[in-house]
UniProtKB/TrEMBL annotation:
Domain of life: Eukaryota
Annotated membrane topology: Multi-pass membrane protein
A Pfam family the protein falls into: GWT1
Annotated source species: Rhododendron griersonianum
Record protein name field: GPI-anchored wall transfer protein
InterPro entries: PIGW/GWT1
Length: 467
């Protein structure tokens, strides 16, 4: 059915077609992108490890309720640091996702070589000392979660412009792409540092439902708001009514209902994923990937509902990995970064190898069904990013950037703000017909406004970290 002429979004059908029937890019390109993102963050620390943060800012340490030492800056120094972070991290990422996309692999190699050279230069003549402690590992995990959020916030608007390569957008059925990693990365990042992974007692069902209620509310709000303004929604992604927030809520609730010790959660998660994969290759994938839908709620939202099994299994595997890599037998107490970094790197390589084998011998990677190859794909890429960020210990005097601090304090709120800004841009600019110059200008302004607001929220102590 065509969109009415007087709709808020007259080109809705064209925009939905624009993100449909895509096949993704190669795994090698995904590996290159997964290298460029954390390397840019580390380069920022190399360039300014002892500069802006320690020299030009007036900093007073104060103890907050969340046991994090927070620095109080002058607004001028803080904004200067934010601008530097924007120029050294955000702007290059935007260029890699748009006009420099053909040079991603070359750029990843060159940036890695530059990072190695800078680390070697900074360490030459200095005492051989690696920061290896709880604080180091905690900051690296935070940086990893922030990197997921930053890339997601940039891509959700960029994908609506022709300047964004179609191979980076979500695949229709099978394949690997940058944006395919989004929801899986959120699920995995949440599981690695979840209550289960840290060894805390699980919430009772009533408390778990209350804890997940904000996600349910956000899911309903997204459903109503997109319908209210006739916003484009690719039905093949989750279904007619389902969305990202419902998936997160469902995984959280299922994990609370079935509560097992972390050391066994990976086994259960693997059994769930393998069992689900058996069902897929025996006919379920044909049903899920078909465009035919019935009138019942399950058929209308078949992709979102059935993929829960894959995401739940992924979450449980992530819980055991988080417990093993970061918390160990003592629980609730982080291991040393040096202990974890080697194991994270080895696991990343093993999951990449497993992904290639599963993709070729069992079933191709499919975000839409969240099959076993997609689960290992997400694990491989996320652990790769985390392993690279753990190399920060080799940067003498490194400091976490202001941008990372700001996003870490308001992760989900940042994502919600990015969604609102994306919706506003789509309602006032015909993204499909924008020239490359206009598209890049809009994306730069969008990113700057988003990171400015997130940074100011952090500066004034506003915190809504509930993811």
């Amino acid at each position: 059915m065509d969109t009415p002429v007087n709709s808020f979004n007259p080109y809705k059908h064209l925009k939905e077609q624009f993100v449909s029937n895509l096949t993704g890019s190669s795994m090698l390109e995904i590996i290159a992108l997964a290298t460029a993102v954390p390397v840019l963050i580390l380069l920022r620390r190399c360039f300014c490890s002892n500069g802006m943060r320690d020299g030009n800012a007036t900093k007073i340490s104060s103890k907050k309720n969340d046991d994090v030492i927070v620095g109080v800056w002058s607004l001028r120094a803080y904004m200067a640091a934010m601008l530097l972070d924007f120029l050294l991290i955000i702007l290059p990422l935007l260029l890699f996702f748009t006009v420099l996309s053909e040079w991603t692999s070359v750029a990843a190699v060159l940036l890695t070589l530059l990072l190695i050279s800078l680390i070697a230069a900074k360490r030459y003549g200095a005492s051989i000392y690696l920061e290896d402690g709880v604080d180091s590992l905690r900051s690296n995990i935070s940086s990893y979660r922030v990197s997921i959020m930053v890339v997601t916030c940039l891509c959700i608007l960029a994908v609506d412009f022709r300047i964004f390569p179609r191979r980076y957008a979500k695949t229709e059925t099978y394949g690997t792409s940058l944006m395919d990693l989004g929801v899986g990365s959120f699920v995995l990042a949440n599981s690695l540092v979840s209550r289960q992974a840290r060894g805390f007692p699980m919430l009772k069902l009533k408390n778990a439902l209350q804890s997940s209620s904000p996600l349910v509310v956000l899911g309903i709000a997204r459903l109503l708001s997109t319908a209210g303004v006739d916003y484009q929604v690719h039905v093949g992604e989750y279904g007619v009514h389902w969305n990202f927030f419902f998936t997160l809520a469902a995984v959280s609730i299922l994990s609370s209902i079935i509560n097992i010790p972390p050391k066994y959660s990976g086994i259960l998660g693997s059994l769930i994923v393998v069992g689900y994969q058996v069902c897929l290759i025996n006919g379920l994938n044909v049903y899920l990937l078909s465009n035919e839908r019935g009138t019942d709620i399950i058929s209308q939202n078949k992709e979102g509902i059935f993929s829960i099994f894959g995401y739940w299994g992924m979450y449980l595997v992530g819980v055991q990995l988080g417990s093993y890599l970061f918390f160990g037998n003592s629980k609730q107490v982080l291991r040393s970064n040096n202990w974890a970094k080697v194991r994270v790197g080895i696991l990343s390589l093993l999951f990449w190898l497993l992904t290639v084998i599963l993709d070729r011998k069992v079933e191709r990677v499919s975000r839409r069904t969240c099959n076993v190859a997609y689960v290992t794909f997400v694990l491989a890429q996320n652990l790769q990013v985390l392993a690279i960020l753990m190399l920060s210990d080799y940067i003498p005097g490194h400091k976490i950037s202001v941008l990372e601090e700001a996003f870490n304090r308001n992760l989900l709120a940042s994502f919600l703000l990015a969604n609102v800004l994306t919706g506003v841009v789509n309602l006032f600019i015909e993204t499909l017909f924008a020239s490359s110059a206009l598209a890049l200008a809009v994306l730069v302004v969008y990113a700057f406004v988003l990171f400015l607001l997130v940074g100011l929220a952090n500066f004034y102590g506003i915190k809504s970290k509930f993811w």
